[in-house]
Amino acid sequence: MQLSDRITQLTGDGSDGWDVFYRSRQMVADGEPVIELTIGEHDVRTDPSILEAMHKAALGGHTGYAMVPGIKSLREAVASRIQKRTGVPTTYENVLISAGGQAGLFAAHTAVCNPGDRALYLDPYYTTYPSTIRGTAAVPVVVHTHAEDAFQPRAEDIDAESEGATSLLINSPNNPTGTVYSRQTLDGIADVCKRHDLWLISDEVYDTQVWEGDHVSPRALPDMAERTIVVSSMSKSHAMTGSRIGWICAPKEVINRLIDLATNTTYGVAGFIQDATEFALSQGAELEDKVAEPFRRRRLLAKEILAQQNTVGLIPAQGAMYLMLDIRATGLSGEEFANKLLDTHMIAVMPGESFGTAAAGHIRVAMTIDDERFAAALNTLCEFAKDIAETT
Ligand code: PLP
Fold first, then answer.
1. If you take atom 13 of ligand 1, which residue's CA is the nearest one?
2. Could you report the per-residue pLDDT of 71-113, keeping only the tens digit for each?
C-alpha cells in the first residue's frame, strides 16, 4: 500500500545536525549525567495557580466538547491582550484558539497557500517551518539571514525571492538566534509584503521574552493588519508547553475560514485548558514576568561569562530563551563542536546546522537549567573552545 507524497515527503531530507540531540537523549535515558541545553522547555512547570484553575474547571464539568473557535470569553481576553500590547483594534472575531502555536502555523499556511504556492521562510529557522509548509502542499522557499547582521533579515534578500510568492513566515523574538527584529527590519519586511502582495505569517510565541529593544508586532505597522496572521501560544509565556493551547489573530474573514478548518481537524481545544488559560491571562504581566525572569537573569550571567574571553562570540541575545554562540574561531563546524562537547564534557547543545545553513559554525544554547549549573556549563564550554582554538 502506498502512502501519499505529502506525508512521505513531509520532513524533506532531514539534517545531520539532529544526531547530537538524539545521542544526548539516549545518554540521558541510559542514566548518564548529561547537562541538557538543547530544547526550549522551561526548568519550571506550569504555575500551580494555573493548574488549580484547570482542576476546578474540569471538576466543574468543563470536560465536554468546547466551542470550536474557542470559548468567547477567552477569545475576548486574547483580543484585549493583543490590543493592549499592539494598539491595533482587535475583537474576539479576529481570534481563533488553537492547539498551540504549531497547529496555528499549519492552519495559517493552509489558509493562504494553494498547493504548489511559494511560501517563504528565513534561515536559521525553527525546525518545523519547512515541513509545516510542505505539509500544506505549498513549496518552502528559504531566504538566508547573516551572522554579520546578527541575523536581522535583509529586505532585499526577501525581495529577491518574492516574485510570485504567496506568504512569508517570520519569527521575532527568534528561535534559534535570540534576535529581536528591529523596527527598521520590520518596516523593510512590511514594504516587501505590500509590494509583492504577500501574506505575512508572524510567529510571536516568544513575545514576552524580550531582553533588549522592543517587540514590535508587524500587524501594528501601517496597512499590515489586513495581510498579517499572528500565531502565538501559552507555551513559552506561561510555561504551558504541554497544555497545547495558543491562538491565531487575523482578519475576521481568515478566522471564519480557519474555524472551518478547526471543525475538520482538531475540533477545538479542551474547555478546562481554555478556562485555565483565561485565568492565566487575567493575571496579566506579573505571571509572564515570573516565567521570563530566569532567562533574563541567565542571559545577563552569560554576557558576563562571555565577556571574559574572546574565543566564543555571542550573537546579541535580545530575546527568547536561547543564546546563539559563534564558535568559528575553533575551526570546527557547529556539529563537530557539539559532538565533541558532548563526548568530552557531557554538555549537550544544538549545532547551528540543525536550523538550516545560515548558522553553520554556531551552536544554540538553551538557558533552561538552574543558574549555577548554567554558569558552570558555559564556563566549561568557553574553556573547551579556547583549548581547541589554541591547538588548531
Ligand atoms: N514557534 C517557535 C519559534 C517555537 O520555538 C516553538 C516551540 O518551540 C513553536 C512555534 C511551537 O510552540 P507551541 O506549539 O508549543 O506553541
1. 101
2. 999 999 999 999 999 999 999 999 999 999 999 999 999 999 9
Query: CA 145 to CA 68: how far, in whole Å?
Result: 38
Any ligand 1 atom below 6 A from CB of 100:
yes
Residue 389 resides in a domain: no
> Which domain, by its residues, includes 347?
5-45+286-384
What is the Å distance from ligand 1's center to 308 Cα? Answer: 33
**Same-domain pairing of 155 and 65:** yes
Instruction: Identify whether the C-beta of residue 336 lies closer than 8 Å to the C-beta of residue 342.
Output: no
Q: Which of 283, 300, 331 is the last residue of a domain?
A: 283
* C-alpha cell read off for 218: 508587524
pLDDT-derived band at 303, boundaries 50, 70, 90: very high
Q: How many domains is the chain partitioned into structurally?
A: 2
User: Atom 7 (ligand 1): residue with closest C-alpha?
Assistant: 40
* Pair 104, 253 in one domain: yes
| pLDDT confidence of residue 331 | 97
Task: Look up the pTM and report it.
Answer: 0.97
Give pLDDT tens digits for 140-170.
999 999 999 999 999 999 999 999 999 999 9
Do residues 195 and 333 share a domain?
A: no
Alpha-carbon distances of 42 from 220, 265, 323, rounded to whole Å: 29, 29, 15
